[in-house]
Amino acid sequence: MSIEISGVNKNFGDFVALEGIDLSIPTGQLTALLGPSGGGKSTLLRIIAGLEDADSGRVEIEGVDATRLPAQKRNVGFVFQHYAAFKHMTVARNIAFGLEIRKRPKAEIAAKVDEMLELVHLGQFRDRLPSQLSGGQRQRMALARALAIEPTVLLLDEPFGALDAKVRKELRDWLRRLHDEVHVTTVFVTHDQEEALEVADSIVVINDGRIEQVGSPDELYDSPATDFVLSFLGPVTQLGGLQLRPHDIDVALEPLPGAVPGRISRSTRIGFEVRLEVTPTEGQQPPVQVTVTRAEARGLHLQHGDEVWLTPTAGAQAIRPANAPASTLDGAATHGYSVTHVSG
């Protein structure tokens, strides 16, 4: 394992930032620390980097006990959200900085700077100042500077948070391709669920200083271990006492055995999606949020006020919290979906 974290605890006064953190991150993997603001993910990243000391516990990097090692001796590259660029230095000098303070030979530094500029596609900007670059280009420069020292581990603290949505999406794609090329063990912090699901090999969901679940994007999205993971990794709605994703609900225009009847109370088109709010017509059930494609909505001629019948999609993963009563929709054999029980 590249990074082993055992029994890490961290308090800031009376505030518990991390409690009982045990985590293994394999060599060469791109891992996301995902959670809400204040959940502890950035604190954990800074402890791995050596920028923060744990109150107790152990951090091991590539078999070396790094718990008490200063940051500069951990061979870790760190990229901040706001680039932390040296404004008076050119792009090339920014990239060279870490090598210069390590007193590497000038020829080696020049070769590595050329290599990094080509890797991040900034060769034509080598003599520009950071202020002359776009936000996305500055972040690529920051990544090149971190990679230039050939770190054992690359750590990124919300690296795309300061960028607009379009540039963020482009850089996510670029980071995934870059990681597949250089294969350095990478850990990045994000509160953006889509970012974690799209980029990471593995996701660590952290909330209130504790790890809620660790797994692949598919595992966490399809088989959440807790209510928090279920709700944090995407939209959730209720149907007949079960919780499931809005896109995992089938809409029918005729009654079906066990289906929940309702009436479309709202319809909103967002690009290729149509989002429906369906108010159940039996019992005191909350409105159900349903997402269908534009083509499905057109094919069914769905309109505001239409009566419809709802069932979980075949193969869907429906969730019933452990304290929830049984539902008429629990019949997996009948409807072709499965029910998972999760804790709070």
Automatic annotation (TrEMBL):
Superkingdom of this protein's organism: Bacteria
CDD domains xrefs: ABC_CysA_sulfate_importer (cd03296)
UniProt KW keywords: ATP-binding, Cell membrane, Membrane, Nucleotide-binding, Sulfate transport, Translocase, Transport
SUPFAM superfamilies reported for this sequence: MOP-like (SSF50331), P-loop containing nucleoside triphosphate hydrolases (SSF52540)
Gene3D superfamilies: P-loop containing nucleotide triphosphate hydrolases
Entry EC no(s): 7.6.2.9
Enzyme category, top tier: translocase
Gene Ontology cellular component annotations, sorted alphabetically: ATP-binding cassette (ABC) transporter complex
GO molecular function: ABC-type quaternary ammonium compound transporting activity; ABC-type sulfate transporter activity; ATP binding; ATP hydrolysis activity
Domain ABC transporter: 3-233
Coiled-coil intervals: none
Protein name stated in the entry: ABC-type quaternary amine transporter
Gene source species: Aeromicrobium tamlense
